[in-house]
C-alpha cells in the first residue's frame, strides 16, 4: 500500500507541476525510436550478426504489413547492405522508407570516429546518402550508437553530405558522464571554425532509454527494471505511469525548455520482436493518459519538430568529446597500420569500389576482433571464430613493412634514480584486485629499445615488443617521456580529421577526459610528436611534465560460456597481428616540422 500511495502521489504531483520550473516547458510529445542494435560481432560472429540483421529487417517488414501503426528504423547501412546482398526484393522496404514508417540511418556503421581520418569519415555518410539518392530517398539524419564520444570535426562530414540531424545513443556506463548541457537536450553542434553544424540530440540513457526510463513498452520495462524498482502492480499502465512520472520530474527540475524529447527503444541483437509491442503500448498510454503523447517515429520526425519550432532558440555548442573507447584499437596495431594503408590505396583510385570502402568502414565499427570477448558471452570456439572473421576484413589490404631509416644513436640525459617514469621507457600496467599495478616489462618481451637522431633533427624513439611474452591477463604496455618545461606548459594541439583542436580547451560543454587520440600528430609548443603505431596519449595525473601513451593493449585469458576460465593462444586471440610489434614516436623540432 505504501508503494502504491507513493506512486500515485509522485505521478499526480508531476502531472500537476510539469511546467512549474522557472524555465520549464510542458513536455507534450515523447518520440520513441525503435530499432535493434547489431554490432559487427560481440553477441555472435560477424557472419551470424549479418544473418540476424537480415532476419530483423524481414520481420519488421512483415510486421508493418500486419500493423499499420508499426514503425521501425534500420540502425546502420551495414545491416541494410547484408539484407540487399541476401537477394531480397527491395520494393516493400523502399515503400515503407518513402512513407516515413521506416527510417534508414545515413551512417554506414557505428564506428570509433576518433581514430578515423578525413576521407573515411566522409565515406561513412557518403555511401548511404548516395544509395538513398539513387532510390529517391532523402537520408538527412544519422545515428551513431554505443560509442560514447566523437571528435570536434564530425559535424563537417555530416553536413558536407547533406545530413542535418544527428542522434547519438551514447553508452555512458563505462565512461565519464556527459554534462546536462548536452544530455537529453537538442543543440546545434558546430565545427570549431563555425562553418558546419548539425542539429544534435544525445540520448543519455543510450539506446535503452524508452523502456529503462520511460516505461515504454511496459513489459520490457518491467523485465529490465523489476529488481531495482518497486511497482504498485504489474499492470502495464501503472508501470508506464511510474516511469514516465519520474522522467518528467527530472525534466521539470532541469527547467527543460522544449516541448518534446526523444528516447530510443533498442537492445543488443534483439531483432524486431520487442518493437511489435510498441503500437499497443503507445495506444494504451495515449488513450488513458494522453499527455505527453507517445509517438513512434524515426529520428527525423523529432528533429523536424524541434527545428521548426525552436531553430533560433537552440544553443550552439562547439568541441569534441571523443576518445573513451578508441584506445581499444591499441589491441590491433598491425591491423590499424594496414587499414590506414588501405585508405591511402583507395584514395588514389579514380573510382574506388564502394564494397572495398564498406569493408574498411566495417573494420572501424566499434567491435574489434581480439581477445576472449566479453566475459561469459561466447563459447571458446565461437570467440576464436569471431576474431578470425573480423581479421578476414583485412584480406587484400597492404601489409606495411617497417623500413624506417636508421638514425644516429642518441644517449638521453640520465633520469633521477628514484624516477618511476623514465624517458623513452616502457612499463606494464595490470589490473589486480581492482587496482592498477605498475610493473616492469616481463623478461624477453621488450626486445628492442632505441633512441635515434635523424638527419633532419628528428628524434626517433623506437621500440619492439614480443607480444607472446606478455602475461595472458589484461595488460597495458605504457610508454613514458619527460617533457621540457615549455612543452609541459604548452597547450596540446591535435591534428584532427577536420583541422587542429586543443585538448581540454575544445571540449564539448566543458567535457574533458584525461587523454587524447592522435592518429597523425600533435604539437606541444614548438615540438611536434608524430606517432607510428600508438594512438592514445595523455599526461600523468599530477605530473604534467610526464607524457604517457598506451602503446599496446592485450588480453588472452577470460571466461567463456562453455568452459569457464581459459586462455587463448596469441594466434587465437589476435589473428593477423604481428607477434613482434615495432612502433616509433618521432619528436620533430620546430624548424624540421615547418618544412614537412
Task: Walk me through what this model shows.
The structure is a single chain. The chain has two domains: 2-318, Alpha-Beta Barrel (7-stranded beta/alpha barrel); 403-490 and 525-594, no CATH class. The chain is built from 17 helices and 26 strands. Helix 6 (154-159) links the parallel strand 4 (141-146) and strand 5 (165-170). Helix 1 (2-17) crosses helix 9 and helix 8 (218-225) packs across helix 9 (236-253). It is globular and about 80 Å long.
SSE map:
Layout: H1 2-17, E1 29-34, H2 46-66, E2 72-74, H3 77-85, H4 91-99, E3 102-104, H5 118-134, E4 141-146, H6 154-159, E5 165-170, E6 186-190, E7 197-202, H7 209-213, H8 218-225, H9 236-253, E8 260-265, H10 278-288, E9 293-296, H11 299-310, E10 316-318, H12 333-347, H13 354-363, H14 380-391, E11 408-409, E12 425-432, E13 435-439, E14 446-453, E15 459-466, E16 475-482, H15 485-489, E17 492-496, E18 499-502, E19 515-517, E20 522-524, E21 527-532, E22 536-540, E23 543-554, E24 557-560, E25 564-567, H16 570-573, E26 580-588, H17 590-594
Question: What's the quick description here?
Answer:
With 596 residues, the protein is an alpha+beta fold. The chain contains 17 helices and 26 strands.
Number of strands: 26
| The CATH superfamily title of the largest domain | Glycoside hydrolase 38, N terminal domain
Main β-sheet description: 8 strands, antiparallel
Strand content: 15-25%
Query: Helical percent range?
Result: 25-40%
CATH architectural designation of the largest domain: Alpha-Beta Barrel
